[in-house]
Amino acid sequence: MAIPQTGIFALGTGAHAYLEFDLAGSVDALSLVSAAGRISEPRTTMGGVNVVTGFRPEIWRAAVPAAAPDDLAGFTAPVVGRDGYTMPATQHDLVLWVAGGSYDVVFDTSILIIGALRDVAVIADETVGWTYHRDLDLTGFIDGTENPSLSVAPAEVLVPDGAPGAGGSVLLVQKWQHDAAGWTGLPVAEQEKVIGRSKPDSVELDPRPDTSHVARTDQDEFGKIFRRNTPYGSVLDHGTTFVGFSARRQFLSAMLDSMAGVDGERDALTRFSRPLTGAYYFVPSLDDLAPFAPPE
Fold this sequence. Notes:
By secondary structure, the protein is α+β, with helices and mostly antiparallel strands. It has one domain: Alpha-Beta Plaits, CATH 3.30.70.3420. The protein is built from 10 helices and 12 strands. Strands 7, 8, 9, 10, 11 and 12 form a 6-stranded antiparallel sheet that branches. The chain has a 4-stranded antiparallel sheet with strand order 2-5-1-6. Strand 9 (about 230-235) and strand 10 form a beta hairpin. Helix 1 crosses helix 2 (about 55-65). The radius of gyration is 19 Å and the shape is globular.
């Protein structure tokens, strides 16, 4: 059985950095994968810090074609709803998600990573994440209620054994800016209709509004996703970094189409939150990264 990057499932970390890189100059895909593999292997922890490494799908396929799932593709075109609502495409070549118990160790590790990659990649975007009241997002609702338990999550969101890229996962990263004033101005009952759940205990509404976030992202309809979202930003400018893992890109892209209203009404939550970025990455198994790791 292929071993996944265990940082995917390392819950309980309070400090995060999402580092996205672009290829430097004429560097090729194999050189980038080799350099990143030396950082992330053979351990997923560096001084108490988890590091998850993901590659632009086209980069991974060019470097390791035998370990690339068939439906891999980057976020190369915006998602546009029927009313013109748009989710932008801001695809980069590499992401390293660094997570730890405190930001000092995340910061130190991030500096080391940027230095280690300086000959092959340039930092294109950095987002700092943190937890909010343990498991809430900045809407005040519990985040990740529908996540599968850790006992079954690997079987549901990793590429299955026997398939190309087994033990890997497709990662969607999006930064969503919140309309804090608009959201907090809603009565709680109206907020619950937007989300599709009760605010205190995250119980799904019955009936749930068709345009609610729960209805427009129903995992029983679109496929299983393991979410590791975190808040980002400051009091004046903040939102949610969506971090979603799935066994297939199709599950994630269908969910985005539903949210944007490509074939119908869009998610009510998009009235109060705007995506600023969007990128897909393939997070290969430790087995597939092992050939690029140093011998020790």
